[in-house]
Amino acid sequence: MSPQSDEQIYHPASLLSRVSAQVTHLLTSSTTSTSVHVSILPVCGLIFQLSEGTLLTAAEQQTLLTALARAVIDSEGLQENVCAAQLSPIPPRLPCWLAYQVARQANRYGQHDLAASIYEKLSPLTLSERTNYWLRGLWEFSRAEAQLLLLARRLHADCPEPRNDIPGAQEVTRSKPQPWVDDLIDGLRQASDIVHKTRSMFICVGGSDNRWFQAEYVGIRGSLYLCLAELCISANYFTHVSRWPGRYRSRCTDSVTPTAVRALAVPTWVVRQLDLWCGLADRLCTLQSQCLDADQTTHGHLYAYPFIIQLVGFFIDVLQSIRDVYGGADKLHYEQVPVSENLSKGDPFRTVLQELRQIAQSHMKFNPLHTTNFDWLSYLALQVARVASHWPRFFFQRLQTSTVRLVLLPKAGNNPEDVLTVSSEVGHMVQVMGVVQQRSRLPHGQVARRIHAVEVELTVTTAFSETPGLHRRGVGDLVFSSIRSARLQRDYFHCEFCVRFPDPVQLSLNTAQRQANTIYRVSAVAILSDTFGTRWRLTHASGAPIETTLVRVESTNSSSLSVPPTPTKPTDPADSRVHV
Fold first, then answer.
1. Could you give the CA distance from residue 416 to residue 411 in angstroms, rounded to a whole number?
2. First-residue to last-residue Cα distance in the chain
3. With contact defined as beta carbons under 8 Å apart, do 88 and 62 qualify?
4. Measured between alpha carbons, how far is 77 from 84 in angstroms, rounded to an integer?
5. Which residues contact 530 (CB under 8 A, 6 or more apart)?
6. 3-class state of residue 194 by DSSP
7. Cis bond upstream, residue 570 (ω within 30)
8. Which parts of the sequence belong to the Integrator complex subunit 7 C-terminal domain (predicted)?
9. Distance from CA of residue 502 to its chain's centroid?
10. Tens digits of per-residue pLDDT, 240-292?
11. Residue whose C-alpha is closest to residue 95's, from 54, 174, 40, 165
12. Are strands 518-530 and 451-465 parallel, antiparallel or unpaired?
């Protein structure tokens, strides 16, 4: 086959025409409807992949959906489909379930405009409130992504690249405000508001898993938009409105010396932005530690773009480097961070990350004693916003399910409010037993990550006081903490802890009788370890509820006031603490 024919075949427009041409072939073949359904999704995925960087136009979307509908209807030998979603003002119509699958495929490859139009047509056809919330949430999320994407690409086509400040220059004039920055800020904040509204819709869906991953994924996406908007606002204000840099000198001579540079105070906006981005990074790590059942592509997505531990880490490195410049560091933090190679070759962030690093490197050598232009930070945000996000597979499909059940003994009863009374004279033996169940939807029941060990973290905190008027005093104070490891025996594990509670008589002496009737809460949580050594800290929503029981401590020897007080925060000597 000649190169010209190859180029024609693999062009998206050519593929769309070939999809339409298959309708005639299906009329004369014995292709079943099942095989047609199976073959349609890979064809759509190929078209979406080849359209990377551009959204399908309305005409191209109409051509694709019409061709798919004709292929399905003709293969089934039907002229009308009573359970169908009208995807265009003219026939034919595409079956509901297949239309939903096409929309999911569009989200996974960044064609959010097409997905939003499909979800909008499917929403009125739902039969349950939960399904309606789910589809409307998908529609809102896709619409927000598509609108921001179109805005960012339009702004990028019109705005010039930010110029570099000359490090040796004695004075740099303030640059004129850029109108596109205000438009980008408005677009990011509007997208953040819509996405957080979508998160509420996903929470309303409910269900056995409560859509915890989808809700948190969308919430983090909205927080990312908000962080980008706040970064643009701070950089824009500091560049065009803020005080002259001489005001930031704490002790500085007339000549520019290294000592004077080190005496500069770091601008407040840099510190505030670091706090915002570090908080987002912690939230991302928490989400990733719960995704035990996610497929490998989803973990690659979370690590790369758009969420993104790599993306958030990049902005943290940039802000820390700006702080280093004002602090007079010999080597910037940005120069000490290696470029990670753990990125999927097909992920759009792999290319964007290199561009972002080049832009940051070219603007990092600024003179903090002179007026500094930080418009390039807004340009970084624009570069991120103009790349279409690829939703992970785990957002729509779960290939395996892991659940953990814990039993904490002894307990006073089945009611969580029942209180167990123990003596303070001896250590209290606590047993934690549990079972780990893993089920797979893959062929032959294969599990991607098999759990082989469990770490049980036992904590004792003050729950409340039975003394009138002291209900809130001292609640949540840590009294005891310990971690035990146990290997799975088939699916079961067992751990034992020895807990010594504070003596209530001594506490009464120290606190003037105010804490004589304190109730303690004993909590156990499981931390899972797979065969690769990765540790997963699941939550109640992700399949690992916390087991708790309430304990009241009473003293059998009320005259033992001369006994040395028990430490209020004892720790098991054999404790193997590992922070998650």
1. 9
2. 56
3. yes
4. 15
5. 292, 449, 450, 451, 452, 536
6. helix
7. no
8. 405-536
9. 40
10. 776 544 444 444 444 454 444 444 678 889 999 999 999 999 998 888 888 88
11. 40
12. antiparallel
- Of all helices (H) and strands (E), which one includes residue 189? helix 179-205
∠ CA 320-325-328, rounded to 5° = 120
Whether the pLDDT of residue 358 is over 90: the answer is no
Residue 367 half-sphere exposure toward CB, CA atoms < 13 A = 17
Task: List, as one string, the DSSP characters of 89-155.
Answer: SSS--EEHHHHHHHHHHHHHTT-HHHHHHHHHHHGGG-SSHHHHHHHHHHHHHHHHHHHHHHHHHHH
Cα–Cα distance list, 558 to 8, 396, 465 (Å): 92, 61, 20
- Determine the CATH number of domain 400-554: 2.60.40.2550
pLDDT (tens digit per residue) in 541-565 = 777 788 999 988 876 654 443 334 4
Amino acid of residue 450: R
Q: How far is CA 304 from CA 58, 252, 349, 401, 476, in A?
A: 30, 43, 7, 24, 37
| Residue ranges covered by each domain of the chain | 3-125, 161-395, 400-554
Strand partners, 462: 520
What token pair was written down for 550?
């309430």
d(CA 500, CA 424): 7
Residue 368 or 460, more confident: 460
| Radius of gyration from C-alpha coordinates of the chain | 30
